[in-house]
Amino acid sequence: MVSDSSITKPCLAPGILRRVHHIALNVKDMDASRKFYGVILGLKELKGKEVPETLIELVASGKVANFITPDGTIIDLFWKPELSPPDPDPNVEFTRAAHLAFDIAPEMFDRALYVLNFHEIEIALGPVTRPTGKGVYFYDPDGFLVEIRCDPA
Question: What domains can be seen in the chain, in order of their start residue?
Fold first, then answer.
């Protein structure tokens, strides 16, 4: 007899959740964060008619910025000027989210390292090599841990 209580409880079947739709981040310095995600990391910022209708007023007032990754994931930045982590040391986690990971082609990994170094982005960990690939970890302007990773070459 199967005693797994999850059999009788409703759940979503694998594949029902198709992909990450968006990631919302609170940011203290909108200009620094827009530069970080748009210029340094090269994500496309949504402007004009690309901005979702529900966010047009917030974007126009400078309270929200939206970026899109090549796979269509949206990153929403919400300006919170009073935001500060409970601990000023960004190595102390202050959010339930562990990190935001971007995938990159293996042949572009060294280029990403070059860009981070060029912009004097302090590397928190790495590059590390694991059976799942290589990764490098660093913080955005608000102390949120970001990873750039690639599959094994």
Answer: 14-82 (3.10.180.10), 98-153 (3.10.180.10)
Backbone torsions φ then ψ of 118, nearest 5 degrees: -60, -40
Angle at 43 between CA 134 and CA 123, to 5 degrees: 40
Q: What is the pLDDT of residues 51-76, one digit of tens each?
A: 988 889 999 999 999 999 999 998 98
Looking up tokens 């090269």, which residue turns up?
42
Residue 45 burial class via C-beta count within 10 angstroms: exposed 0-12, middle 13-18, buried 19 and up: middle
Question: What distances in angstroms separate CA 136 from CA 55, 69, 77, 91, 126, one per listed residue?
Answer: 32, 18, 22, 15, 5
What predicted TM-score, i.e. pTM, was given to this entire model? 0.70
